[in-house]
Amino acid sequence: MSKSEKMPPPRVSRSDAEWRQQLTPEQYRITRQHGTERAFTGPHWDEKAAGIYTCVCCGEPLFASGDKFDSGTGWPSYTRPVGETAVAEHDDRSWFMRRTEVRCAACDAHLGHVFPDGPQPTGLRYCINGHALDFEPET
């Protein structure tokens, strides 16, 4: 892993009004209000092209297509983020459950959750809302 992958990304901070102006209503609901899209309805869940998935809010790289897999859940799923500091994890006790929430480390956007039921090599499943991501195809 390169030195740059270990350094946290610069913090991105905007007012609520700026986020609302920048994002679609669905992107805002998911990333800023900790929402979830319905399975099989968001973008990228069935994307197969090579590239990098970035944060829809700030553009920071989050996940690589090489770490994406079909989890059968209807959400984009990955075995790991692009680097150690790309995402932050938080305890989520909403909906009478205990889960690990995943947020963009740069702008604190809600991305989804991580579960310990993924394939090797990590055994993790980063289950991410497609509306929280942009996709930059490999050129």
Structure description:
With 139 residues, the protein is of the alpha+beta class. It has a single domain, classed as Metal Binding Protein, Guanine Nucleotide Exchange Factor, Chain A (Beta Complex). The protein has 3 helices and 9 strands, in the order αααβββββββββ. It has helices at residues 3-6, 16-22, 25-31, and strands at residues 51-55, 61-64, 68-69, 77-78, 87-92, 99-104, 110-115, 125-128, 133-137. A 6-stranded antiparallel sheet has the order 3-4-8-7-6-5, with no helix packed on it. The model has no long low-confidence stretch (mean pLDDT 91).
Summarize the structure.
The chain is 13% helix and 29% strand. It is α+β, with helices and mostly antiparallel strands. It has a single domain, classed as Peptide methionine sulfoxide reductase (Metal Binding Protein, Guanine Nucleotide Exchange Factor, Chain A), CATH 2.170.150.20.
List keywords for this structure.
139 residues; alpha+beta; Metal Binding Protein, Guanine Nucleotide Exchange Factor, Chain A; six-stranded antiparallel β-sheet; three-stranded antiparallel β-sheet; globular
How would you summarize the topology of this molecule?
Elements: H1 3-6, H2 16-22, H3 25-31, E1 51-55, E2 61-64, E3 68-69, E4 77-78, E5 87-92, E6 99-104, E7 110-115, E8 125-128, E9 133-137
Antiparallel strand pairs: 1-2, 1-9, 3-4, 4-8, 5-6, 6-7, 7-8
Largest sheet: 6 strands, antiparallel
CATH topology: Metal Binding Protein, Guanine Nucleotide Exchange Factor, Chain A
How many individual domains?
A: 1
- Cα gyration radius (Å): 14 Å
CATH architecture: Beta Complex
> Quick check: average pLDDT?
91
Based on CA inertia axes, which overall geometry fits?
globular
Which spans have pLDDT < 50 for at least 5 consecutive residues? none
Structural class: alpha+beta
